[in-house]
Amino acid sequence: MTELNERIRDFIETGASPVSAQEILTAHVSMHVMTISHQVRPRSRRRLWVLGVAAALIIALLSIGLVSVPGVKNNAVSPASAATLLGSMAAKASRENPLVPGPGQYLYVATIVSNTDGESMHPSPKMFWYNSDELHQVWTSPTAAAHQTYEIVGRPEFVSAADRSVWVTDGSQPLQSGSSGYGPPLYYNVEGLPTKASEILAYLKSQTYRPKESPYGSQASWEFDTALQFLENGASSLQRAAILKFMATIPGVRLSGYATSMVTHEKGSVIELPFKRSGLTTEAVFNPSNSNLIEIRYVYISLASIEAPFPGPTRIVGEIQSYSDFAFAGITQAKSDYSLPPGTPTFPKVWPFGSTREPLSGWLGSSSKH
Amino acid sequence: MGEVVRQEFETFVHDVEPSLRRALVAAFGFERGRDATAEALRWAWENWERAKDLNNKIAYLFRVGQSKSRDRKTPDIFERSEAHEPWYDPGLAPALSALTENQRVAVVLINGFEWKLREVAELLGVGVSTVQSHLERGMRALRNALEVVEND
Questions:
Q1: Phi, psi (5° rounding) for residue A89?
Q2: Which of A192, A290, A359, A367 is the most buried if burial means most Cβ atoms within 10 Å?
Q3: Taking phi first (over 0 means left), then psi (-120 to 50 degrees means alpha), and beta for anything else, what does residue A263 get?
Q4: pTM of the predicted model over 0.90
């Protein structure tokens, strides 16, 4: 195939997101639901695609032609398309500013990650579930102790109307703090990252603070996830370029259209690596104009292999299991452990746990195990 | 609808959608092409007993998509935001838009996606020699517009 033919192919293939069977079928159902009830809330995030095909929204999405339905991808997309995009972004990355902390400095990275919590109000045995966004701020340094903060921001949302009903039946009591408690943050040693793509894999494998393999035993999945983690944690421009080029060599990586990030609502191109054994596909949403990693998310592609050791929300194929949106990164002087670098934006307000403020209602048609 | 029928339809979409979308996007541009694809597949679902046994599913649904989107006022455009996608040759969109609908379909499907002349002829309901003519004229115009020098 000549270069011009490849350009034509890539241009057409990536210009319109695939139409899925799910989209057709749920549009059919949603149209019916809309005729009997108008209680569908516009902000039902992870399952947005399920009711996002309700008439008005689908028309809007299709008219701009930029939003892909999460989890429903076209298997026929050429891997070469992913390589083209990653190569292009690598060229741009090599001209961007480095994010490597020097002596007395911290690398500050803020992300907003998804969080699903379940609660029951004593003495009720029934659980209700809600989704929320968690602002995760991390300060890491090669020479000082790393630290981090977690805060639930924005407004939590019940997973389903059924979950809200349980909450109301049990007295509409204030939510307990759902903020996650994790261990100390990792410092990603970006100083030693190679600037040649061919040397990246060996370097990633040598990082003892990272898991050595995927929990599902997939080498490609481990490489993809590890590379993404490094991209989220600062590096020099040439190092970032090398990581992007390395990602293009991972078997199974493909370009699969466009997506809008869940929290920051930025549009970008999706590079994904499906891994059937885990029942999930890892999607990385990039801004192709500057190589920024906008979001990492995991989407259910199969429920057969998903183990649920605890009761929880009912899962749906195509649903986003979890996401991490990049919010801001910068280098801060270590005047205090929690100082912010110049240009840090204002983040969404912290949710007032303990107040009587009501979370958003959940998706009308979903259900959870109680 | 039963689960079996649903699965049959999912398989049907999996097999048909990529080619159908490429053909309709080539003909009508990104917005209207995708819209027409969704319309055609929706028709297939609503007429499943008929759609599942069609001889040439893609050609038939191509015409369904054409007729379903015929009354749309949306122009056939290939506009893309350069702010988000600067890696594309900015000349490609206007060059493709300048071709006739049939030239575009021939160029995109045959050169871009390696369809056979006969397959595009069936899709468009014209003869193979006509498709060959659309392809040659389309490629000539495209190369001129993009100032590409190559012999393919």
A1: -70, -35
A2: A359
A3: alpha
A4: no
Helices (H), B69-114: 92-97, 101-106
Strand-strand pairing, A147-158 and A254-260: unpaired
Mean pLDDT of chain A: 74
The domain limits of chain B are: 3-68, 92-146
SS3 A26: helix
What does the DSSP assignment read for B11-26? HHHHHHHHHHHHHHHH
Q: Is A248 helix (H, G, I), strand (E, B) or coil?
A: coil
Question: Cβ neighbours of residue B149 under 8 Å, at least 6 residues apart?
Answer: B143
pLDDT tens string B54-112: 888 999 999 999 887 765 555 556 665 544 444 455 678 888 988 998 999 999 999 99
Q: Does A24 lie at the interface with B, CB-CB under 8 angstroms? A: yes
Residue A187: half-sphere exposure toward Cβ, Cα within 13 Å: 17
Burial class (CB in 10 A: 0-12, 13-18, 19+), A104: exposed
Which chain A residue has its CA at the smallest distance from B78's CA? A15
CATH code of domain B92-146:
1.10.10.10
Judge whether A11 is closer than 8 Å to chain B, CB to CB: yes
State the residue for tokens 């575009």: B104
Cβ contact A256:A278 at 8 Å: no
Residue range A103-129, pLDDT digits in tens = 888 889 999 998 877 777 777 777 888
